[in-house]
């Protein structure tokens, strides 16, 4: 178990170190190699079966050819024997011998028989005999079957008296003892000759011996295995003929007889191809046996061909796998190098070799990844620009805030002295103006460097500012407040209202000869704080104001402002920089005669900046 865990751990470590191309290649091997092996095994199985079938067919054809050749010899020999027993001259000759004539003339019989066998090379000799003597023989004198004494020594002579069939075949006919039957390959047909007068009285016997060399030639001409054994057995399953072979498989004869026609059997740890074929006109059977190793040349050839094809296919598959893995991983590798560009992982020379022009038009996952990465890079670049702008704006705001904190201290102390001098001289109007101006300076001072104040604090600042303006405009200027209690303690950017109120007076109230009203409304909707400042007069150019309030990180020159509307433009940029591009200032016309400025702010200020 410990070894298995260690092996799995090492495998995972090795896998994690592999690149994408190698993983693809191993994936191809894992998926396709088993399939290739299964297909190869299937092809080998079917081709082997086909080769075995061809081998069996070849065996059948060979056995049919041997059977037909032997059957031709036996059938013609049987026909010859019938011609002999019914021949008139043969009948006369045998009748003379039966009547006691010692030396009858056999010339006509000799002519008749020799004319039959002269063109039949498969016949070795023909013998005519009576009960006790040989009457005629085509054999030379003093041969193995030329006299009655020699014939009576043969193993089969005793069986002739028991025969009831018209004719009989005997194998190993020249052998004298039964034990010698497998040492000779002689075949003989014998037939009783009966008198034609009554077709019952036996008057002699004819024996036709088949040419041994002719039979050997038939059985030898197999062309199927170098040690193949061939047997011919009679209706009693006795071997009457066999071929000569360097190896003897006689121990298989009984199994072949008991087996099906053709099959492969195993004996003594060796496989043999065996078969049998029955003769058409007799109870004989042709048996054959050959070692499987000698006749499976086709199967061996198929095996070698399959191995060669498998090796070739394997090399082709390996080449294609390497090519496909490289081709499929190349876009991933290119995208990886593109990402390395942002932290110096790729040299300039390698950067020039990256070709990503085609990726943008691709519709597959690689194209999607490329376009998503490009959008991500673009977003990162925009964020870098925004952060850079925010940093510059923040430093500029801190500097401006420092200046506003230095100057108001000095002015506040000076105005306080003027206020006491006005009161000392009894001029209350000057005292009221100086007090209001002093309050605006006091409210502009902060105890810390925070960029945010409460809305209530910002409204107090506007009230002090409007007190000063009312001393100028008198009854021509009126301001109304509508503030939700929930909104009073919310934080907003410092000095967010004063430039807008100043703009209302400058471009609205001051240009009108009739009294004007400024309405300031503060309300919360969801997570958004809305501050709306409405003034009488509709002299504003909305297109120019919209252009003035445009703020795009990519198209805006850093820290550049228009000469007109500097304060409003500055407030709008501060809001967008701090809170995001979805917040800011927007101008509209309401009731056809009034101008409305809507400030959109988040309900909760950012924690980072706060």
Question: Could you give a quick summary of the protein structure above?
Answer:
With 610 residues, this protein is α+β, with helices and mostly antiparallel strands. 50% of the residues lie in helices and 18% in strands.
First-to-last CA distance: 58 Å
What is the mean pLDDT? Answer: 78
Strand order of the largest sheet: 2-1-5-4-3
CATH class of the largest domain: Alpha Beta
Number of DSSP helices? 16
Overall CATH architecture of the largest domain: 2-Layer Sandwich
* Structural class estimated from helices and strands: alpha+beta
Description:
There is one protein chain. The protein is α+β, with helices and mostly antiparallel strands and 610 residues long. It folds into 2 domains: 51-297, Beta-Lactamase, CATH 3.30.450; 380-602, Heat Shock Protein 90 (2-Layer Sandwich). Helices cover 50% and strands 18% of the residues. It has 16 helices and 17 strands. It has helices at 2-17, 20-85, 88-99, 107-117, 148-152, 212-220, 253-258, 292-295, 297-340, 348-353, 365-424, 428-444, 455-473, 498-509, 542-548, 566-579; strands at residues 123-129, 134-137, 167-171, 187-194, 202-210, 229-233, 239-242, 262-267, 270-278, 285-291, 452-454, 477-483, 491-493, 516-525, 528-536, 584-590, 594-602. The strands form 4 sheets. A 5-stranded antiparallel β-sheet has the order 2-1-5-4-3. Strands 7-6-10-9-8 form a 5-stranded antiparallel β-sheet. A 5-stranded mixed β-sheet has the order 12-14-15-17-16. A hairpin with a 4-residue loop joins strand 1 (123-129) and strand 2 (134-137). Helix 2 (20-85) packs antiparallel against helix 9 and helix 11 (365-424) packs antiparallel against helix 12 (428-444). The radius of gyration is 63 Å and the shape is rod-shaped.
